[in-house]
Design brief:
Layout (H helix, E strand, L loop, with lengths): L11 H5 L13 E10 L7 H7 L5 E7 L8 E5 L5 E5 L5 H8 L3 E6 L20 E7 L1
Length: 138
């Protein structure tokens, strides 16, 4: 009975913040924010191989990079395996960066475009044009 037990401090959201976007939590409201396309994918090493492993509906992690030398509001996007896919475009990242800085749980869901009768995607889709829907859990 007198054994010391290490206890996690903080709220439940603090404890699960890193990977909580992967959890399906009942009674949590998911709010659609916007659709984006991932920027900078062409600079990612082996993006062609990573792209082949992505799947429709895959949850993506958003990570702030306030020390990024190119953009102080940079938001990096990673797949569910932790591989870097690119960034939110600079002209779209201010609100998302501010929400992440405020501790909000923001994540992305990969959205493959519809396929036409000819078997081709109805909109541009390749390793340099990856559409993502952004959501916030509240």
């Amino acid at each position: 009975m007198n054994e010391l037990v290490k206890r996690e401090t903080g709220t439940v959201s603090d404890i699960f913040r890193k990977d909580s976007f992967l959890l399906d939590i009942p009674q949590i409201k998911e709010i659609f924010l916007m659709q984006i396309h991932i920027a900078g994918s062409r600079y990612i090493r082996n993006i062609e191989e990573i792209f082949k492993e992505l799947y429709d509906g895959e949850k993506l992690r958003l990570i702030r990079e306030p020390d990024n030398p190119h953009d102080e509001l940079a938001v990096r996007i990673e797949d569910s395996k932790g591989r870097k896919l690119g960034y939110i475009y600079r002209h779209e990242n201010e609100a998302i960066a501010n929400l992440l800085d405020a501790g909000k749980n923001i994540y992305g869901i990969l959205k493959f475009p519809e396929i036409g009768e000819d078997g081709e995607y109805l909109s541009r889709f390749n390793e340099n044009c990856i559409p993502v829907d952004l959501y916030m859990r509240d």
